[in-house]
Every structure is written in structure tokens, then in C-alpha cells.
Prior knowledge:
By secondary structure, the chain is α+β, with helices and mostly antiparallel strands. The protein has helices spanning about 5-10, 15-25, 30-35, 40-55, 85-95, 120-135, 160-175, and strands at about 75-80, 100-105, 115-120, 140-145. The model is unreliable at about 1-10 (pLDDT under 50).
Amino acid sequence: MDADMTRVADLDEVDLELLERIEADFDVSLDTLADELDLSRSAVHYRLEQLRERGVVEGVTADLDPTAFGLDMVAITEVSVTHEEGYSENIGTELADLDGVEQVYYTMGDVDFVVVSRVQNRSQMHDVIESIVGIDGVDETSSRFVMDEIQTSPRIAPVLSEESRSALIDGRNNE
């Protein structure tokens, strides 16, 4: 079993239900969670702390609406690079460090990286694309500009199959 599965295998059904609820609405109160899960408020608090300590819950953040700050321009840029030793980590890190870059994915297929950028205007977007092209080893880029954002928040719990859920729970019970 790989390291990631070992860490996650410490979940039980209540943990999974708790994670589903906080993923849907992290602002939900401990009292509401306690009522919904039929647990005491302290038990919910303890479980949340344990999930944080084990790295299952990575942090507490506010979901800011980027459009409230005028960050309305989004581009998805495919990046092809020269394949030299360490290129995936080195170029990936350089891409991620650029101002305006929200997400970087190392991919297999026709392109090497997919970069999602968000800025306020065309001038800033031009600067981001120029910075991408300026990274040593970047050979080619192709950008698409987003016209409308339909779904932007990742959701983990809803995509777990029943088989995956059972494996997570059974992994804990078999220890």
C-alpha cells in the first residue's frame, strides 16, 4: 500500500461523514455538526483536530471570490518544454512561482504542463504569458481564455465511490 493510502486508511464512517459536511460548508458550527452526526461537540472538535494533525484537512481558509478583487481574466495555458533531467520539477516550480498563476499541472500527452492563470487585465495576462515563455526550457505555449466560470471549487468527498469508501473504512478495521 502506498504512503498516501496508509494515511487516509485511518478514516472511519464518521470521519467520512464529517469530511463530507465540512467540505460542503466549512462555516458550519460544531453544534450543527454534533447534531447531524449524533456526537458531542467535543467529539466533533477532537475528530477535526485529529484530521488536521494527520494532514487529511490541510487548513482552514476563507474562500475569497477573485472577481470581487477584479481578477476576472482567466487563461488556461498548455506548455511544452525541452525534456532534460529534472525538467518536470524544475520548470513546474518556476511556473508555480509566477505572479498570477493559480494552478500548475504536470501532464502526460501532447503537452507537458497545464497552467491556470488569473489576473485583472490583458496587460497583466500578457506579462504572465511572457514570463512563462521566458522560462528556460519552455518551447511552446498555447492559451485559451475563459469566457465563463461554471465550477471552480474542487470537491473530494462526492467523487469517492462506494468501493473506495469501503476500502478506506476496511483499511482502518484491518489494522
